[in-house]
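Final report, section 2: Outcomes. Of the targets proposed, Peptide methionine sulfoxide reductase MsrA is the one most frequently requested by collaborating groups, and we therefore present its record in full.
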Amino acid sequence: MSTYKKAYIAGGCFWGMEELFRTQPGIIDTEVGYIGGENDHPTYRNHPGHAEGIELTYDPNLTSFKKILDYFYRIHNPTTIDRQGNDKGSSYRSAIFFQNEEEKLEAEEVIKIVNASKKWDGEIVTTLEPYSTFWAAEPEHQDYLLKNPNGYTCHFERFKESFV
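The predicted structure is given below as tokens.
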């Protein structure tokens, strides 16, 4: 039986987040998709209310939910509502999809730490949303930046040092 866990986050275009998370210690697998929206079986062209999210499978012996959130806050701008880079709309919101009360409390704690750091201009606007079904994106969106190394991304490490 696997001891791996999953985390669900959204912070703009899913391609860039996937590319950066795939190399983080303890991350076993990444999958991009849609979460938090109105329709079943969403697609790239039809995902009302869904965020472009990422499912991270991780080994809790090598990393933690808090460390994942720490990195999340270093690679996207969590102070812009429904926007990352040139991408605008609720699909590109900053969101954490918590699976239980422990994850919700840890997310709230990390948000307080990041806000207190004053490293970002403005307050964190990340939404905390209860986990809903994660729908995997189409195959052409999986591992997109591996397949298209010069593809668009607005994600990069803005801060090298950890918040937590």
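The two ends are 30 Å apart (CA to CA).
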